[in-house]
Write a structure and sequence with these properties.
The protein has 89 residues and is α+β, with helices and mostly antiparallel strands. The chain has 2 helices and 4 strands.
Length: 89
């Protein structure tokens, strides 16, 4: 996965996800929004043929990149758990 950080501040970040689908961006955005440290999480879904840009803003000076990493790890753990359940059934 190729990403490009377009803007980074103490409590917000804009990241371009090169070649990623809206399916992944929807899942990531929804997972980020479950974090109580997040103020805003959204991406630009208006054009389906462009690389999506994720925007995350956090509360109380929380590092927005760490919030994204935490959300991606939770998604990964959920997928691993599902694969284990399928393989062991």
């Amino acid at each position: 996965m190729e990403i490009k950080i377009l803007e980074l501040n103490a409590d917000s970040v804009k990241i371009l996800f090169v070649g990623e689908s809206h399916t992944y961006m929807n899942a990531l955005t929804q997972e980020i929004l479950t974090d109580s440290r997040v103020d805003v999480a959204s991406y630009n879904p208006e054009l389906h043929f462009t690389d999506p840009i994720l925007y995350v803003s956090t509360k109380d000076g929380v590092d927005p990149v760490s919030v994204i990493i935490d959300a991606a790890r939770r998604i990964s753990a959920d997928c691993a758990e599902m694969l284990d359940a399928i393989e062991n059934s």
